[in-house]
Automatic annotation (TrEMBL):
Cofactor: pyridoxal 5'-phosphate
Organism field: Fulvivirga imtechensis AK7
A Pfam family that the UniProt record links to this protein: Cys_Met_Meta_PP
List of residues that carry N6-(pyridoxal phosphate)lysine: K195
GO biological process, one term: transsulfuration
Similarity section: Belongs to the trans-sulfuration enzymes family.
Superkingdom of the source species: Bacteria
Keywords: Lyase, Pyridoxal phosphate
UniProt protein name: Cystathionine gamma-lyase
GO molecular function, one term: pyridoxal phosphate binding
InterPro entries: Cys/Met-Metab_PyrdxlP-dep_enz, PyrdxlP-dep_Trfase, PyrdxlP-dep_Trfase_major, PyrdxlP-dep_Trfase_small
């Protein structure tokens, strides 16, 4: 099955009791048993729910995995991965991560005795020097949020395999439409389903997808034991969102390209970050591992003035100033004070996350209107 067909059909069967083509919202906490233990595979909705099952199967198919697991947020999904580890274990993480991931690692899990090393992975070979006998996991995002760095997943997977360390890839920005990390050797794919998979800015959810049964069983144990599972209504909304994932991603990528082209020569723009640009430092790797380049774009202003960045962001008509990304509507964000405010200033400056950095989540509106909006806001 090709991607668009999977997006519409994978994991979804007509409802066995009525034939309903859309997966029903099984809004139930429990399931009646004829006699103790005689159930139909469903006992209690934290553990199993048919609406969630359909979504988990759909996600597994989209990422070419064999198992999908949904969580009540992206961070809850990451939380489950780190709970696979024990005190004394070490994690090598990319130094340019979603702010909430950095906070979860440094403020929650560090105190349980798990050690995190934040390193540049722009050259994947650099990962190897940080591996020691306690290393259990490599964690990366690509493209990264918000600097749009590209990390070579295949090369990272080779290093992980050589040292018998797990590799987890946060694939939120690329989505399975643009990139499939499991095919490149990753062990775990993570998504903030809140973003492109949901796609309509109406759900907060996370997911993990794996190929290995034992890894799935361990994660499913944590999913049920820690209990951060999503409700059936949210699962339904995401199942519905996924039906147009391929169509949305095509338009996000097309609009992303048009807007990057427009900003490339704008006199107020200093640095422009979009992996589809030929001068992007890892453009060649992006071309190899991604099918297109998506609609996430960041840029800084000449003179690096935060006030100027604020002034611009307040003047948009169609780009709404908000956290989050990946919805049908265009959003603009100021990472230094919004999504990435939990990262210390010295750390963020090191990776180029300057005070004037503006991040765009380019929606699926008409590109002409979006460019006109940029033109008047940047004026
Ligand atoms: C939003 C986001 C997360 C966190 O997901 P939530 O659903 O907000 O908990 C993790 N990684 C990336 C790249 C994100 O954009």
């Amino acid at each position: 099955m090709k991607f668009g067909t999977k997006a519409i059909h994978a994991g979804v069967e007509p409802d066995p009791s009525t034939g309903a083509i859309m997966t029903p919202v099984y809004q139930t906490s429990t399931y009646v048993q004829a006699s103790p233990g005689a159930h139909k595979g469903y006992e209690y909705s934290r553990t199993q729910n048919p609406t969630r099952d359909a979504l988990q199967k759909s996600l597994a198919a989209l990422e070419n995995g064999s198992h999908g697991l949904c969580f009540s947020s992206g961070l809850a999904a990451i939380d489950a991965v780190i709970k696979l580890l024990n005190p004394g274990d070490e994690v090598i993480a990319a130094n340019d991560l979603y702010g909430g991931t950095y906070r979860l690692f440094t403020k929650v899990f560090a105190k349980y005795g798990i050690k995190f090393h934040f390193v540049s992975m722009e050259k994947a070979i650099d990962i190897e020097q940080h591996i020691n006998k306690n290393t259990k996991l490599i964690w990366l995002e690509t493209p990264t949020n918000p600097m749009m760095n590209i990390i070579d997943i295949k090369a990272a997977a080779q290093i992980a395999r050589k040292h018998q360390v797990m590799l987890a890839v946060d694939n939120t920005f690329a989505t399975p439409y643009l990139q499939n990390p499991l095919d490149m050797g990753a062990d775990i794919v993570m998504h903030s389903v809140t973003k492109y998979l949901g796609g309509h800015s109406d759900v907060v959810m996370g997911a993990l997808i794996v190929k290995d049964k034992k890894l799935n069983d361990d994660l499913a144990f944590l999913q049920n034991s820690s209990g951060a599972t999503p409700g059936p209504q949210d699962c339904f909304l995401v199942l519905r969102g996924i039906k147009t994932l391929h169509l949305r991603m095509q338009r996000h990528s097309e609009n992303g390209r048009k807007i990057a082209e427009y900003l490339k020569t704008h006199p107020k723009v200093d640095k422009l970050y979009w992996p589809g640009l030929e001068n992007h430092p890892n453009h060649d790797i992006a071309k190899q591992q991604m099918r297109d380049f998506g609609g996430m774009i960041s840029f800084t202003l000449k003179g690096d003035s935060q006030e100027e960045a604020f002034r611009i962001m307040e003047r948009f008509k169609f780009f709404s100033l908000a956290e989050s990304l990946g919805g049908v509507e265009s959003l603009v964000n100021h990472p230094a004070t919004m999504t990435h405010a939990s990262i210390p200033k010295e750390e963020r400056i090191k990776v180029g996350l300057l005070d004037s950095l503006i991040r765009l989540s380019v929606g699926v509106e008409d590109a002409e209107d979006l460019i006109a909006d940029l033109e008047s806001a940047l004026d």
